[in-house]
Design brief:
6-stranded parallel sheet, 15 strands, alpha/beta, single chain, 9-stranded mixed sheet
Length: 454
Amino acid sequence: MAELHTGVGRQRGTLPWPRPRRIATLSVHTSPLDQPGTGDAGGMNVYILEVARRLAEADVEVEIFTRATSGDLPPVVEMAPGVHVRHITSGPLEGLTKEELPGQLCAFTAGVLRAEASRPPGHYDLIHSHYWLSGQVGWLAKERWGVPLVHTAHTLAKVKNAQLAAGDRPEPKARVIGEEQVVAEADRLVANTRVEARDLLDRYDAAPDRVAVVEPGVDLDRFRPAVGDRDAARLAARRRLGLPTQGYVVAFVGRIQPLKAPDVLIRAVAALRDRDPAIADEVTVVICGGPSGSGLDRPTALIELAASLGVADRVCFLPPRTGEDLPALYRAADLVAVPSYNESFGLVALEAQACGTPVLAAAVGGLVTAVRDGVSGVLIDGHDPVDWARTLARLLPDRLRRAALGRGAERHARNFSWHRTVSGLLAVYGEAMTEHRARLAARLAADPALSCSW
């Protein structure tokens, strides 16, 4: 394996990297103001929001450009001191799917360039784009502004297509080409884990010296174990959310689409009923989220599946939770399941563990980093419901084992924080800025006449 650069764990101030004053963050298809768990809003929204807040706390101003999807929001919203969200009008405010957005990239780019043109020259020191659509815009903006581009993919089409869920739609060729272009043009590619970095190298021929691994974090102040007796706290959390106070609760949190595979959990409960009906009759599966992606084609598919398998009485559906309800749901659960076919990291797994709840996860992508197998949860190879049922049958009745995993989950989650993430990103930003300035200096030295244009 080629040597990978890592921004993880690097201490601020140990290297003489310059620090950006202002960053233009690009998030075309989803806004950090959107509620995670529905539509296209998910872990990427949380990532952008948390990173922007902490960059601002480090005296780095952040302006987030996103597509306007409602006439109710003003053109610019101050999300936090030093963080502004700018809504760019590009296409109709509603009714566009993510797959239709490439046709609006020209309009979005024009809006971004106009916003910068109204500022003094050199207003932004760096661009950080998120997802390939934003990377396309960032590629053009970096050439126009003369600043470096840092890109985070969050998901990769070639990886998703290689691990496609049954019945899901493959990512189109246009996206694959678009990602290849962004990989070739970005000054730095930030991967969430070494697994994602390996995918960038092997599947996209990324230059190793441009790939940096910076792991996401978790808000350890918000997501934390309950104070005091955990059994009493679990009971209080269940009452708060209207969940059964008796028996076992296994929770799924996220967007409802084939990629996230909540159907695996429902099928596992059906398999558990065949295997051990006494345990199955004590289980409540909580599906918390809203339809997204290809899941919008059949928004009632999971309800129909539970009914067809005879486990409708064991499945509870909740809309996405906000505020303190989300940590409460994690604390209410005996286990949190993340059966996705692919995850670049898996923030839900990290949030649950930070609350002291063990995680069952598919051994794919970033989940092998987010969950420490046998210590903070259990990783399961594949998506066979029988294998998932076997693990549920083993863990749910074993109170001591679950308690040990819960303690391990809390300890494991404490290895991740958004401050640590931002420290790594600042190092990556500094390297990109340093190299960009060196290239510019070399060009000016080779042709002094260029100085008139800068």
